Amino acid sequence: MTPEQLPLLLKRFDATLLAAAPGVIRQMLRTALPALPKLRHGLSAGESLLPALRQDWRDRTGTDLHEALGMSECSTFISGSPARPAPEGCAGYPQPGRLVAVLGAEGPVPRGGAGTLAVHRSDPGLMLGYLDDPTETAARFDGDWFLTGDLVAMQPDGALRYRGRADDQMNPGGYRVSPLEVETALAGLPGADDFAVAEVAVKPGTTVIGCFYTAPAPLDPEPLSAFAESRLARYRQPRLWQHVPALPRNANGKLNCRRAGRGMETRMIRLDIFSDPVCPWCYIGKANLDRALEAHPDHPFQIEWHPFQLSPQTPKAGVDRGEYLLRIFGTQERTVAAHVRLEELGREAGVSFNFEAIKTTPNTFDAHRLIHWAGLEGRQAAVVSALFRGYWREGRDIGRSQVLVDIATECGLDGAVIGRLLLGDADSDQIRAREKNAREKGITAVPTFIVADQYALSGAQPPQLWGQVIDELAAQGKA
Q1: Which residues contact 116 (CB under 8 A, 6 or more apart)?
Q2: 235 φ, ψ (degrees, to nearest 5)
């Protein structure tokens, strides 16, 4: 029996009640529901019921959908009901006869405050203990209170607003974030049939929020990021968007977010790119890589851009572009020939050069600082693209602080913050140390691509080669 078949079963047997996990209900609502005149209401359990899904059920069936919160140790003990529906965004009320409290580190939490949902030892539905495991049983009690591990806030009328599991809390960048709060804010994610968020390790010591979604085909991440930005604070926004064939659910339809996060970590492969915004081969190399990634939307790469200055000795104010080119190529004829060749390769890669617009060869140290800060905000790809485009197509002097502030603002960063950072030496030592480390590793030219900390590719590789790399990595992942 599939969720798509349930509506027909409800109709055939004139079902009056339906109990199912939210994931099952969500799939049911994607089908053409028959008229269900006998249905009185639905009951949702197994994971948190998002307000948007409850409203969708109401609109489609004309009945209410009530949530039930429980666990094996004490069965269902919090719920809404036709006699007392849960307020919007709340799971429900303690059932009659159940003894519950919301506890913090210092004891009971005032109404409205968040804490751990606890059940008193005398509650008639609470287990006697874990079989043959008194140590584990004792560990779950705080005095006479059994700690469920569910984070809730009790409203003034006694309704409980579910905040997620204590052991499911995400901690990207040192901020504690509830998956439920993020998923609630992302309700209606454009193009996605279903989705969930989880914390994902992208490198040792660094985690971000990843969003896993199902859809007929992979979605463009930029509109998804814009949607998230319009609804969530920066530290709560997903930095990774991963199309998956299905979300990991158990036989009852309950979602396993931590398994999803581990699955993404398993699939992700680091691609470290060393480049300089004033390197034309880096510009072409990025364009070729982008074409390959667009053709392989399920690619495994987690990309990070690293600093490497072609001309670190360039004065902070930059140098005249004509003088710089004459020093590099020796004659005007050689300069023209190099430009013609770059224009040809650029057309093949889908990018263009406007050499006439470029008046200055800048010092790119501050541009690399901006790329670093953009990485912390999940905007690195956008900023790198804007720097390449700004310099090579628009002739912007990307060595000037105001130009960098403008680019940062255009890419969704806080321009005022970037401006203040550029006035000082913030992260300068880190940028120098990273570039020194790259040179010590043997990197002498850009672009250089390091795949999975093992394989190095130098130069503007064609998209066909990147396609082969991605296909080989996919084959290895399936082996």
Answers
A1: 102, 103, 104, 147, 148, 149, 150, 151, 152, 166
A2: -70, -10
